[in-house]
């Protein structure tokens, strides 16, 4: 990629894009637990309210790959309770709707 194109892509990013890609719905909502989240209806809260809304933070490993593949959906994931038998160690995407192939900023 040439330098001019790379810099234009960087300049078009909004400051909150990285925060959303890294942190969106990876932590539970403390206000929801106390029945005080004002963003529950409609559900616009940055944090998760139920376990099946939780997503894992994408982490780049020393191999250069991420901690899970956005290309392969986990067939053992139970959407009703938000659990996979492999937990966060699962190398596959647990939420198809949060896949980087589907979710764009």
Automatic annotation (TrEMBL):
Keywords assigned by UniProt, alphabetized: Metal-binding, Zinc, Zinc-finger
Naturally occurring in which organism (per UniProt): Gnathostoma spinigerum
Domain C3H1-type: 68-98
Lineage: Eukaryota, Metazoa, Ecdysozoa, Nematoda, Chromadorea
Coiled-coil boundaries: none
MF-aspect GO terms: zinc ion binding
Taxonomic superkingdom: Eukaryota
Pfam families: zf_CCCH_5
Protein name as annotated: C3H1-type domain-containing protein
Record-linked PROSITE patterns: ZF_C3H1
Zinc finger extent (C3H1-type): 68-98
């Amino acid at each position: 990629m040439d330098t001019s194109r790379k810099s234009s892509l960087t300049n078009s990013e909004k400051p909150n894009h990285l925060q959303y890609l890294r942190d969106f719905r990876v932590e539970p909502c403390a206000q929801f637990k106390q029945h005080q989240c004002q963003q529950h209806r409609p559900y616009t809260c940055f944090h998760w309210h139920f376990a099946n809304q939780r997503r894992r933070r994408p982490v780049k490993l020393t191999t250069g790959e991420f901690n899970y593949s956005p290309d392969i959906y986990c067939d053992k994931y139970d959407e009703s309770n938000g659990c996979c038998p492999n937990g966060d160690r699962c190398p596959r995407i647990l939420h198809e709707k949060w896949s980087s192939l589907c979710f764009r900023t």
